[in-house]
Amino acid sequence: MSVPEEDRESPVIPISWAVAALLLVLPWICARLLGIHPDDVTTVVMAGLSIVGAAFILSWAAELAQLEMSPALATVFLALVAVLPEYAIDLYYAWDAGKALAVWNGAPPVPEALGLPMANMTGANRLLIGMGWTMVVFIHCWRAKKHDLSLQGFIELDHTYLIAATLYSFVIAWKGSLSMLDCVIYVAMFAMYVRQAMRQPTEEPHLEGPAAMVGLMARGPRRVVNAVMFAFAGFAVFLAAEPFAEGLKHIGERFNIETFLLVQWLAPLASESPEFIVAALFAWRMHARMGFGALVSSKVNQWTLLVGMIPLATWIASSGHLAMPLDERQREELMLTAAQSVFAVAVLGNLRMSLWEALAVLVLFVLQLFMPTTQMRWVFSIVYVVLAVVVLASRREYLPGIRDNFVRFFRL
């Protein structure tokens, strides 16, 4: 692997990134190992920053791993590693929900713990589209002095499975539960996605920052460094996930802030921010399609495997409950998330996103943050679906291509 001459950085830059990531991670690790138990706010800040730093290290380690395995295996591996911090937090909430489900007698009110996995999952998915995708388009249009970002050859497979996962999410919202059947369907969908991804043409890895610096080492030392990076980042996520998740709940109780909203937005912001920053750096370096493609892939992963793992974790923790009921709030949030996804996949139907389309996605996302009521969730859901219909109606010439992708990608 070689780093293109125009993309090479001064060694000071990747070293600075690596030091910054370590400075985010080490304070919390030291506190845990020394048995220090700070107050809830300090815990959330320190553990959250540790997750951010660990996510950066994981992303660099995952990039390096591409040099050590076949392209097919690298595709599977990267699909799982990219969203590991988000999985750790959401599955902790799912496990907690399972324990609450085991002792709940089914009578109102529904335990708060049952709503937190859905809160975290819906927030993460909406952030990816509302902030991540639009950010990459804005940076690209500014840097390249263009009015859109073409994604031909980068997201056809992801787009197809994103449509399938989005359509099925409406079924979950309609029936009002997340069950082991949904787990089987979503995991199967993810397995099909990975199977097809392994058959796609691959390119030589394009390493950035610390990953590029380590990638220049001889194979033996590089493998050792890569293994240490994975082990260290995984250990950091393990130490931080539970205190961070619990700290958010305690802060909500202490300051009379709705825990659902804290878990929905603050937790995903910590776990997703490194991925956003990496995608932004790709866009800044005129590799916006790679950055956007990575975020779309993460959306597919979270919209299939992450959703599918929630009922599995709940089932194990509850000792046999096959379905987790969704209350009205959770169903509304899932419906809004699915509606946003419908609009997003409609916009990407021509495999490009314009500056104005990105602005529309961003504005709708920001507006819904300030209107967290039942009525407005339904209003925004309807607006998203109506806009999606309008976009598809104006681009009917692309519908046969989308249909052909379904036939091709879902042929076993």
Notes on the structure:
The protein is mostly helical and 412 residues long. It has one domain: NCX, central ion-binding region (A middle domain of Talin 1). It contains 15 helices and 4 strands. The chain has helices at residues 12-33, 40-65, 71-81, 84-103, 116-144, 156-175, 180-197, 209-215, 219-255, 259-284, 288-317, 328-347, 355-369, 374-394, 399-409; strands spanning 148-150, 177-179, 323-325, 352-354. It has a two-stranded antiparallel sheet. The chain has a two-stranded antiparallel ribbon with strand order 2-3. Helix 4 (84-103) packs antiparallel against helix 5, helix 10 (259-284) runs antiparallel to helix 11 (288-317) and helix 12 packs parallel to helix 14. The longest helix is centred in the middle third of the chain and has 37 residues, at 219-255. The chain is globular and about 65 Å long. 47% of the residues are buried. The model is unreliable at 1-8 (pLDDT under 50).
- Output the radius of gyration: 21 Å
Determine the CATH topology.
A middle domain of Talin 1
Shape: globular
Tell me the number of structural domains. Answer: 1
Q: Note the run of SSEs as H and E.
A: HHHHHEHEHHHHHEHEHHH
The rounded distance between the terminal residues' Cα atoms is 34 Å
Structural class: mainly alpha
Number of continuous helical runs: 15
Instruction: Give me the CATH architecture, please.
Output: Up-down Bundle
Give the percentage of residues in beta strands: under 5%
In total, how many beta strands? Answer: 4
